[in-house]
Specification:
alpha/beta; 7-stranded mixed β-sheet; 6 helices; Glycerol-3-phosphate (1)-acyltransferase
Length: 215
């Protein structure tokens, strides 16, 4: 069995995230009460800023293990990210080690964080990859949609991919839902159908979150 990332490390990461995110920006967290207090869970997060992962890690009510592209694990960040329970994934191949470790998180009742669009983009859940459906169905984990709505449209940013410092960043947690059809099937067709269901749910959540926050 592949080593499962440290749950204690993820809790340390959460505490670091809290300090950093509240120190640099003004997070406003909505719907955190919707997050189940225990059991396997997947956060499906839209991705338009570099701070999306650390922001969710810091404000979520439970420690989170994010699947993060291996390119981010450079220099001293490698042992740091590994130490706080984050998962290195090679996006250009079937990374069986990352898959095994991610399923291990769910088997132990932990929270897996996924950017289902694969890369940072418009953050609108327009193109989902099947990986999210696979983990949800195989791991028997409900999905909580998470919308991170920052201030990327405003001028005054020191770094293009980050919201302006001390600006408000909204993090909106949605209702948990099951991706599968209840049959437990993991065929390509079943996963494609699950991906469609997920996309509808995530897109609807994002629209609701934008209405709720005025973003």
């Amino acid at each position: 069995m592949t080593d499962v990332p440290s749950a204690r490390g993820a809790e340390v990461g959460r505490r670091i995230g809290v300090g950093l995110m509240y120190g640099l920006w003004k997070p406003r967290v909505l719907g955190a009460w919707r997050v189940p207090a225990a059991g396997p869970l997947i956060f499906a997060v839209n991705h338009s800023h570099n701070i999306d992962g650390p922001m969710v890690m810091g404000v979520a009510p439970r420690p989170t293990h994010f699947l993060i592209k291996k390119e981010a694990f450079v220099g001293p960040l490698d042992p740091f990210l590994t130490g706080i329970g984050q998962l290195k994934v090679d996006r250009h191949t079937t990374d069986r080690t990352a898959i095994s470790r991610a399923l291990g998180v769910l088997e132990q009742g932990g929270v897996l964080g996924i950017f289902p669009e694969g890369t940072r983009g418009e953050g609108d859940f327009a193109s989902l990859r099947a990986g999210l459906a696979y983990f949800a169905v195989r791991g028997g984990a409900p999905i909580v949609p998470v919308a991170v709505l920052g201030s990327s449209e405003r001028p005054g940013r020191l770094i293009k991919t980050l919201p302006p410092l001390r600006s408000r960043v909204d993090v909106v947690f949605g209702d948990p839902f099951d991706a599968g059809d209840g049959s437990g099937r993991r065929t390509r067709k079943a996963l494609d159908e699950a991906t469609e269901r997920i996309q509808k749910q995530l897109t609807a959540h994002l629209e609701n979150a934008r209405r709720l926050t005025g973003r």
